[in-house]
Structures are given as C-alpha cells and as structure tokens.
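Hello,

Following up on my earlier ticket. Below are the two sequence lines again, exactly as submitted.
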Amino acid sequence: MSNNKQTNILILDDEPIVGKRLKPSLEKKGYLVETFTESLEALKRIREHNFDIVITDLKMEGIDGMQFLSEVKERSPRTEVIVITGFATMETAKESFQKGVFDFLAKPFKLGEITEVIRKAESKQQNI
Amino acid sequence: MMMQRFSDWIKQRIPGYTRRSTTLPFSMLFSRFQEILALNNQVLETIAGANDKLSGDYVFDQHYIHVTCGQLIEMVQKLINNLDVIAPGKYPDLNRSFQEIESEIRATLAGKMHGPESEFVIPYKMITKDLSETVGGKNANLGELKTYLGTTIPNGFAISCSAFWAFMEYNGLEPYIKKITDAWLDGSLELEPASKQITEKILAGRLPARLEKELAKAISNLAGNSKERDLFLAVRSSALGEDSKLTFAGQYLSLINEPAANLRKAYIMVLASAYSSTAMEYRRRKGFKEVEVAMAVACQKMAKPKASGVMYTLDPLNPEKDTMLLSATWGLGGPVVSGRATADHFVVDRTSPHRGLEVKVVRKESMLTGLPQGGTGLRPVEEELQTSPALNNGQITRLAATGLAIEKYFNRPQDIEFAVSETGEITILQSRQLTVRPHKTPHAAELADLSARYPVIFRDRGVIAQRGIASGPVFLVRNEDDLKDFPVGSILVTRLASPLLAKVIMKASAIITDVGSATGHLATIAREFRVPALFDTGIGTTELSQGREITLDAEENVIYQGVVKELCYYNLVEDSIEETFEYRLLRRVLKKIEPLRLLDPSEQNFTARNCRSLHDITRFIHEKAVDALIDLNYYQHHDLKTMAGKLKWDIPLDLVMIDIGGGLCKPTAQPAVIVPEDICSVPMQSLLKGLKHPGAWDNEPMSVDFGSFMSSLTRTSPAELSSPRQIGQNLAVISKEYANVSLRLGYHFTMIDSYISANLNDNYAYFRFFGGVTDLNRRSRRAKFLGEVLAHYDFRVELHGDLVVARLKKLDEHSMRQRLYLLGLLVGFTRQLDVKMISEGQVDVYVKKLKNLLEENHEQ
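Thanks for your patience. The regenerated structure is below:
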C-alpha cells in the first residue's frame, strides 16, 4: 500500500466460503480483514469500529443487508460499501446506489474484480 | 432474443395455413425449433460457465450452485417440451432419462452422496483418481500412486461406496440414522447414546446377496493359486472425504490380519466405525455434513514385513527446518501408527541425497506380528536385533525420495504408512494429507511486502492456468527427449503448453510456459492435478535458466529468485480452497451435467435412453429436432406455404433447404433439387459464396492457398475428414432476407442465424460453433482462432473452452453480406483446421493468413 495506514475491511456474507475465500486473498495484498457470517455480530462490530470498506451480501438471515448497509452509512458516511449478491436485480441495485453504495457486484465474481473495486474505493477515499 | 423476433415475423408471413394433416403449421414448428436452438446455446454457456468456476479464480457460494442447477434443469425441460411439439410422442425415453438425471442432481444438491453407480468391489489395478468418490480417498490415493508414480502398493481391492449404500438400503438404515443424527445435532439426544444406537443397528445388518457374491469372487481372485484359508487381509476404512483436508486420522477402524473368511464381519465392523462417537464429533467439529458420510473399505493382502513405520514428509511442528520425520519398528506398524510403542526415530534432510540428521534407536524388545489364526500379537525380538535400527541408510534414502514424490504429487505434505520386506522392498500402505501446525502460524498479511524482501525475476506476465505456490529448481524442456529424465519436484519451464507435457505433470512442482492458453488441454490437466501453472509468459525460457532455484506464486503472478520460505509454508498450512464443501458439491453435480457421451448420431448408442447427463440430452434434442424438421418438410412435405429441396453443389454439404418465402427465386416441384443459382436468400447466398472461397473447403490439405504452410504442419491425412458419413444431414431454413442454418460437419456443430435487409436496424447475424473429437487443446485453439477473427470483423465474441458464440447487429446490407461471407469461409476453413492446430503459435499464423485472404478477395 502506498499510504502507511492499512485499509480496514469488514466482510459480511452468511455463506462462510465467501469470507474464507476473500480473507487470505485480501490479506496478502496488505489489507486488514474481518469476516462475519452473522449479520447481528457484524452490526455489533460496526457499532464499535469504523471500517474503511464494508463488503456485504444483501439477503441473509437476521437483519437483511440493506438495513445493515444503511446503518453503516449512517454511522460512518466515509465508509465505502460494496454489495455482493447472488440475487442481482435492477431494483436492488438501484436501491443500493440510492443508499450510497460504492459498487454492486453480482455473485459469482472473480477475485480480480473485487480487488479492482476495492482499489477504486480506496482511491476515492484518498482523494476526498 | 433476435430469433424470437424473427419467428413472430414468420408467423405474420404465413397466414391462413390450411391443415392437411394433424401436424402443426411450419411457422409454429419453426418457432419451436428456434427456441430449441436458443436454449441449446444457453445450456452450453451455462455449463461452460459453471466449469470455469472451478478454476479457483471465482468467489461462488452454494446459492450459485443451486440456482445454476435449477436453471439448467428448467432449460432442459423446455427443450424436451419443444422437441415433443416437433416430434410428438417420438422419444418417450427422453423423459425417463431426464427424470433420473434430475433426481440425481436434486439428491446431490440436498447433500446425498449417492455418487456414481459402480461395482461393489473394484480391484486396485482398476482404480484411478476419477474413482475417489466411488472408493474413498484412501483407496483412490493408493490407486493413483500405483498408476501415476509406479509406487509399490499392496495387492487388494476396494469395496465401493455403492456397496455401502446398498448395505444401508438393504437394512433400512438411512432413515433410522438420519433420525438419530438429527436429534443429536439439535441437542435432543446425547452423543454417546446416539453413536451406540446407530452402531448396534449397523452391526446387526446383513450383506445384500450381490455384495456377498462379489466379495467371494474378489477373495478368490486375490488368493490366486494359494488356498483361501491362507489369505489374510488388512481391512481399513476409506471413507469419502477421509485423506483429503480432513484426515480423520484414527477416527475409523482398521483391522489387521483378518482371515479372508472373516471379511464380511470385518467389513461391517469398519462400516459401523463411521458412527463411533469420536468420528461423529470430529465430523461435527469440522463441518463435514452427516449426509456426506459414505464408507468405502480397503482390503489389502497382508504381507509379513520385516519392519514398518510412518513417515511425515515435513516436520509438522517445525516446517521451517525443512526436514522429514520417520519412525519405524520391527514387524507390523500398528504400534508406531497408534503411537503406543517406542520406535526408532530418524530426522532426514528433505533435500536430496536426504542425509540423516538425527537418529534415535530404542531397544525394541517385542514386535507385532500376524497370528496364524488371524489377528495380531506381540512376539519377542531376537536379542541382536533389539538395538539395531529398524531401517538402514539405503532404505531411509529410498523412503525419503518416495515420500517427497508423493508429496509433490498431492501438493501437500504427507503422512505415509509403509512396510519394508525381508528383501528390502518398500510398500506404501497408505498416504494421506499431513496437517502441519507450526509453532508460529504464517499469516497471509505477512506476505504483503514479499517483493520488497525477495528479488523478483518477473511478475504479471502471462495467464494463470492453475493457482497455487511452488518452489524448486528450474528444469528446461526443449524437446520430448528431455521429458524422460524429468526430476521429481522440479519446475517445468518450456516454450509451448503442449499436451505432451501431461506425461510428467504429476512429477512437476509447477509449469511455466512462454506460449499457451488457460483454456487449453494442458491447463485442464494442470487443474486436475492441481499443479500451479503459469502460461504465456513470453519470456519464461529466456529468463529462467536450468537449475536455478525459483518460487512461483501463481496466486499473485510473481516469480521470485530462490525459495521464498514464507510463501511455501503458508501454502502448506493454508486450507486448500478446492477442498471446501462448495467445490466438492459443484464437482459432484457437474458430473451429472457436463460429460458428453453421445457424440456420433450414427452410432447405436445415440438414443434417448443412453442420455446420462443434461449435456447428452441437449445434444440429442438438437440432432433430433433438425431431423424432424427435415423429415416433415422434405421427405413428407406437408406445408403448402413452404418449399423444400436438397442442395446440389460441388461441395457435399447434404443440405436440405426449406423456403418460407422468397428464399428461392422460383417455385420448384417437391421434393426439389436446388442449385446455388436458384437461391435468392441474401444471407444464404453470401454464406455459400464464403464456403466456396478457394481453399476453404478442400479435403486435401495441400490447396493452392494453404498448401505451403499446411504441409509443414502435418503429414498425416486427417482421418476425421475422410469418412463420408461424417457429414451429417444439414438444414437451412431460408427466406429472401433470412437464413437459419444448422450444420454438422464431422463432429463440429455450427449454427448460423441471420437477417439481412435494406433496413440496417433489423439486420443481425448470430454464429455458434462447438465440438470436434480432437483433443480439447486443439479444439480450444480453434475456438481461439475463430474468436480472434470474428472479433476483428466486429462480432461480439464469447469463448468458453471450445464453444464459440458470436453476435453482430445493425450493419448495412453490404457489410452484413461480407460478414456472412466470412462465416461461410470460416465454416469450411475451421472444419479442417482443428486437426492441424498442433501448436499454440499456429493460432496467430492462421488469423493472419485468413485476414490476408479476405483483404485480397473483396467479396461483392
């Protein structure tokens, strides 16, 4: 990373494989990563800590992703939220963007695609 | 979709059809036919997409697998319905085949492990890695070592998972076990009573008659010329998932030196051990699902070893020391394996010649041996042997080399059980993944700044064909001879990703090539054996010199100078993503979806009943839909609004044409003979002109245009082209502005759908190309060639392995005609091309050649 501070990323997806796949891959690129499969636990975590980037699924048990990302943006407007979902529709994409989501990726996606989106989110934050 | 739009248009063009028979009007048949073509394409693309997900480069979840299977099932159901409209009631077996496949897919998705049906008993010599879901990991690993590395393994056979399921069904155990495990998992039943109830029920079970029979035969075969009562067996568990990431070490039962007559009882005891309380708890802790439990069993002929032991190919607690650990004792190895007895210990250098670094010889007063009546017992060791090491230096060196070869092969450190005979011969009894737990767990984050600490030779060059990390000395392969002495564990560096390399791929730590594609045959094999592979670097052979130690990081695409220990240890300790449940599940369902067995319609097995995968059904329906349309409109012409005839031409296309309005210049008698001059269909005209382009169709490779460079590529006559039956019955449905062409040439399937008029907004062309019987490598190259040419001429191209789909729309009439001309030329040209695509470099040559040809021959 060019700057000294490591970028903090929280990943929330109720299917464990998503975090399991992303965490080591992002850590190797120098990111600090925390993964969650339970939305309520993730919610607890974002209430005690502001992340630079939050990656979340939309459809989960417990509270749903839309609610979760709303709370993230309310608490920390500078946090960039990236939505990953297997139920991609125009409506959900639109709603996500209205709520200030940075980008929207339909699952499955390539590792390269999400790292690209993360990089863009970082540079947006650095430019502000 | 474009084709749908066109069928609406046809319906308007053929109004007021008067019924002559019970058959539907052509407009309706044709719209169904078009739907079949469209669905066919969607199915192929979806399958190819699902296969791509296994490369390790995607993040996908169970939701994706379920959705994809659901979509495929729905599409294939629609295909069947459409065919039934075109050919009512003609293929009742298709529904049966479909229902069977569908229920297998749904059962697999629900987690049921009823995998491939197989024999109940499979001899070791028949076992390859493809059978791991049939015979379990332990058996499959041994079979693979024998097949691919030539390792000595015990003589024996596997009792398959099919036998396990048959046993469970025969004794009505499945619902019983499910009820109890569910109760245990939701907390309403304690572990111990749950385990006890299941185990007792299994032990009371009886073998199905077929299994009894197969076992008797296997025992008699194994005994050979000696008496069956002299045959003693080791009966070991070989459960699904055992020996992969979850080692289940010591969880299941192994019975040593069982008399062959006791095999039935021993078998049931091993099955019952699947539900020991420790095994159940282990599965729960590791997230291994109860429905995934399937117990195959290994039956190995007992030998009388002089010494036995265990080898760890890497010190699991101190991997950074780069040593291997061996323990051994006299006689049978049971006490060493279970850690109950003291044994001699050897610490050995992992680097050849595997120097002994530490030796600890203990006093071995007794040894475990097979008893004459079966079972094992302790016997005193002769005084002078008690303090001698159980392995000599030569044996240690050979064991170490074998162990490392096995480690390289499986790409993971191994926990190996071995035996040494009186004559010093080494036999591998079992090999499974070793769990490495270093004191200091490497962390991915520590790898973030590696390139600052280690010299990078090059990075971000080429394409990753298989992810992974490997280190070792470079071994340059310049020609086939070099493959003969390929040193195990080296990194293979070569110019071309040739399929010849498949011979040594299991010995290589990694493969780096100058040229090659991630969709080629070699990539497929690298993926199968999980050998990290980086292709198309352009500079591999020039930058990497013989013998140089390097580390390939085919995750981040970097090649480092020297051994990057952090990366290597991280790789050995990190969980392999391919072993996750999602990968297992996707691989499992794809086995019921992807394999294409129905290749040649002229073969007897090309029947609805023989369809074993969704791909088979899709293929079958396409073929039969073309037949049905030709049959209804050419052989038994019934629709007055259409005309049908066979094309008479220099090129033996065997093409039936159905004209639905203005496609032929003048009306003809039925059934007609059509000559190219009769055709007024704009897209069809251009297509045929392209096919007739000099050199495009020649059966003789030495044509004026191509002879000079083709002759340098191949001297063999392509047998694939010589047989007349290889050109199938082909169909074109045409009108003045429209052509829909289904071609089967050899084993290639081409579909072209195009509309060309003065109004450029209506114009489009769609091209799909698929198939061939040459190896996947050449087919993929041909696909790449087609892709490059089509993209150059403005098509939007999608490539999935050997499937090419290209679309184009809204060009003016002149440009559209040129594109159809190009398609015609490509159809003819590629027909002979895949047999010649012997190397990756040829793709560029052909692309250039074809572009030149088109520039020189401005059509129209």
